[in-house]
């Protein structure tokens, strides 16, 4: 039995008729696929469904757990992809992105999936294929890619860029794309390309690639990307800091602090709160980075960061080693409402301080 009409309607509304695997806006060409096949006991409830385009449906249909050759998606993975799309649609990020990239595509000749018929009928020349190969190839020097691209005509360039933003899946191909973005000849397209990369990295990529993205992304362009898109990206990373899983925070903290200026305003307080907690973490790589970054903040950011220090944090600071340093360091930038707390923290004996503030 297929899903009933109501179930399907709910799924399509939640995904905004965007395919949960390839992110193509599908319109009527969308299907409700079973995550666990009915033959394997999968139900017809919402939770077992995933909205997919015809191509992706066919692809997961061809997959069989009993013959794991070519086995691409597990049910857990399908669900998590679906939920991510639902989430991004719910807070408007994905739809807004599709609309803006569609609009820009029309004026810009950087193509989105299906938006231009030309791209479907265009047959890449051997030369074009070679450049794509090179850009995806791990041994290529990324700065060579824009030079080679320059030799192509505009349609060929668009095809190469489109293919790369669709296919990149490792640090090297990411760096090829960044090299294109920062080269003068592709100035006009850099924002569109970076937003496509950011969307894909947010939804699809593992923590290692997210780290590589953060460490190498041109920050000046990142700052100008759509705010909703950055919110989706940084929310996940700040969530990782908050959960304080050592292996993950050790991986991302250094690179995240390098691009902290591009964190959207609504997340800045959460970010600093997490960073301040990190100074007391057992994560051996992340902890010293957090300490160093907080000590070296400029005036405005120091104020934001210090406003995240509350009395609980200071009461439970048994070592009284780092926080006094941090608070002293930014003495000129204390938020007004923290002045008394900080003064007392620095002056009073630990026990006195605790008695005073535990009562309040
Ligand atoms: Zn699809």
Description:
- One of its GO terms (molecular function) is zinc ion binding.
- The protein has 21 helices and two strands.
- It has helices at 5-15, 54-61, 75-90, 93-108, 117-121, 126-136, 144-150, 154-167, 171-182, 187-204, 207-216, 219-224, 227-243, 246-258, 265-278, 286-295, 299-306, 311-315, 322-329, 339-347, 350-359, and strands at 30-34, 49-53.
- Strands 1-2 form a two-stranded antiparallel ribbon.
- The protein is globular and about 75 Å long.
- The model is unreliable at 107-120 (pLDDT under 50).
- Zinc ion is lined by residues 19, 21-22, 24, 52-53, 55-56.
- Residues 19, 21-22, 24, 52-53, 55-56 line the site of zinc ion.
What about the largest sheet?
2 strands, antiparallel
User: Number of helical runs?
Assistant: 21
Please give the alpha-carbon distance between the first and last residues.
Answer: 62 Å
The assigned structural class equals mainly alpha
**How many strand elements?**
2
Give the ligands present: zinc ion
Shape: globular
Strand order of the largest sheet: 1-2
- Taken as a percent bin, the fraction of beta residues is under 5%
* Averaged pLDDT: 85
**What low-confidence regions span 5 or more consecutive residues with pLDDT below 50?**
107-120
Radius of gyration (CA) equals 24 Å
Percentage of residues in helical conformation: 55-70%
Topology as a string of helices (H) and strands (E):
HEEHHHHHHHHHHHHHHHHHHHH
Count of discrete structural domains: 4
């Amino acid at each position: 039995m297929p899903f009933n009409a109501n179930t399907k309607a709910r799924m399509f509304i939640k995904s905004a008729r965007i395919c949960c695997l390839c992110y193509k806006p599908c319109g009527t060409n969308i299907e409700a696929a079973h995550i666990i096949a009915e033959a394997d006991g999968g139900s017809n409830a919402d939770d077992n469904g995933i909205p997919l385009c015809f191509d992706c449906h066919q692809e997961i249909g061809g997959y069989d757990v009993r013959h794991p050759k070519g086995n691409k998606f597990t049910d857990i993975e399908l669900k998590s992809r679906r939920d991510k799309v639902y989430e991004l649609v719910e807070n408007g990020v994905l739809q807004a992105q599709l609309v803006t990239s569609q609009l820009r595509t029309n004026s810009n000749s950087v193509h989105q999936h299906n938006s231009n018929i030309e791209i479907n009928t265009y047959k890449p020349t051997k030369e074009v294929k070679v450049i794509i190969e090179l850009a995806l190839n791990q041994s290529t020097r990324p700065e060579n890619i824009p030079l080679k691209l320059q030799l192509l005509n505009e349609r060929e360039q668009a095809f190469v860029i489109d293919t790369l933003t669709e296919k990149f899946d490792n640090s090297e191909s990411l760096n090829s794309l960044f090299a294109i973005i920062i080269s003068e000849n592709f100035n006009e397209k850099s924002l569109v390309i970076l937003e496509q990369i950011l969307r894909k990295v947010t939804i699809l990529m593992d923590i290692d690639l997210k780290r590589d993205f953060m460490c190498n992304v041109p920050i000046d362009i990142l700052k100008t990307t759509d705010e909703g898109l950055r919110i989706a990206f940084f929310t996940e990373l700040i969530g990782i800091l908050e959960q304080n899983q050592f292996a993950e925070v050790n991986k991302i903290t250094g690179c995240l602090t390098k691009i902290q200026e591009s964190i959207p305003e609504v997340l800045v307080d959460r970010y600093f709160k997490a960073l301040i907690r990190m100074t007391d973490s057992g994560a051996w790589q992340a902890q010293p980075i957090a300490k160093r970054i907080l000590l070296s903040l400029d005036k405005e950011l120091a104020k934001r960061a210090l406003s995240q220090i509350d009395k609980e944090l200071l009461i439970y600071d048994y070592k009284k080693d780092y926080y006094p340093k941090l608070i002293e360091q930014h003495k000129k930038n204390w938020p007004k409402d923290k002045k008394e707390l900080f003064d007392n923290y620095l002056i009073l004996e630990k026990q006195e301080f605790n008695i005073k503030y535990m009562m309040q």
